[in-house]
Amino acid sequence: MTPRSDRVVLVTGGSAGIGRAAVQRLAGEGLRVVTCARDGQRLAEAVDGLDGVSGVVADVADPADRARLVDGVVAEHGRLDAVVLNAGVGWAGLLEDMPGEAVQTVVAVNLTGAVDLTRLALPHLLAAAREHGRADVVAVSSVAAWSQVPPLTVYSATKAGLQGFVTGLRREVTARGVRVHTVNPFFVETEWLARGHGRPPASDADAAGRLSRGIDPGRVAEQIVRCLGARAPRTVAVPRWAGLARLGELPPVARALDRGLSARAAAIRRLAARSVRRRTG
Could you give the C-alpha distances from 232 to 1, 182, 190, 241, in angstroms and in order? Predict the structure, then answer.
């Protein structure tokens, strides 16, 4: 089912990766899109030539920027029909090696920013549901929300928290016309690791060597668009088989992971460091 083309959608983290692919697809459907990113140059490159799309330089980790972003969408368009919570950063390594500021950033962007931006947007989404029949929140989560493993311990914790937030929010607003979805990808070919370790690409041309291995971001963006047209709230893994990560929550599997992974902490540390060097060097 295709989302109505008269809707206004806010997409966070639209300068690259999943967010950029989602903005392009939504614009192709004729929706009005406002997207944000911290890097104004990359954001300008991303939205250039896209009809009905505007870009706002904003950091979702900043409370003032979050308020300014939501107020700006409503001032520009008079309504807000959907929010795509896509902005995210990662950090790979053991917790004991993680700087305190990195912990704060990952939590602020992936969890606090997403929750508070939704809080700010919710009055407008509820109004849209009353006036136009529906509104949507789409959270880009991760299979790490279901199976928390090193070297992504803190990242996984934020995604598990985001998944819990979505579940609770569904139980608040579904009956009032706001559909709340999650899209949970496996590894995706994006810049998230380089950005999380303080080495964001300076331009699109610089990005190629900093991309993590994984599926094409367009596959995730396609599911985001489908959520915005779905009749009921969705939780979908991308690819579908990645939903097997939910088995990590079963007690026998969880106990096996506890034993097996903790015994290999030194090897995990080395592999994570190697991956980070390749994408930030």
Answer: 11, 12, 29, 21
